[in-house]
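New to this. Please check both lines:
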Amino acid sequence: MIYRFRAGIYTEGGRAFIKIPFNVWEEAGIKGNIPCRVSILGLSFECKLIPKGNGNYFVPITKKTLSALEPAEEYEIEMEPIETLSRINHDSPYSKEHPIRKIDCIETIPIQAGFCGHCCVAMLAGVSLSDVVMLMGKGHASWSKILEALDYYGISYAPKAVYTKGGSCQLPLCCIVNNDNSFILWYKGSFYGVTDVDPKKTISYIEIFVAGQ
């Protein structure tokens, strides 16, 4: 449900907020850490509401959004509670029906320290590593961040990871492997971007669906 109200912007401790002028618990029937989609003057963004107790919540305003507003004005605001923030796959031009490409070959990108997950996504999507870093951000990628990036590019994958715990396994045609807490891409019988992989250090993998499957 979309809630509409008028409110102004106020700042506190160098940050900007909008105070929601009704009891969210009573009006929306939800409590806790509430993700929302908010629209002000045609500017749309996602955020988590900041609880202030007893059903009172604030909307945090980013510097980018604040730069387009006048703090002294009141604005018509639309707020819609959502199940979860869409994060990096928000507003993707791709989908599972229309992915960025059909995976029928892989061009090697050497795995770089701290960017192993990014490199796997870049090879699967057929884009540059710098493009994926811009999408995912810097720093070691988790499984959840990798899957969000695959969703962004419309790349299909198995619903669950397989945990091998160091045991022997038959890898599928294509998958991302967590080997010794590093992510490696496997495709048609070969690892890409690295050499000297010890199979006994494989922790888990998730299958990637490629052309012909």
Observations:
- The chain has a mean pLDDT of 88.
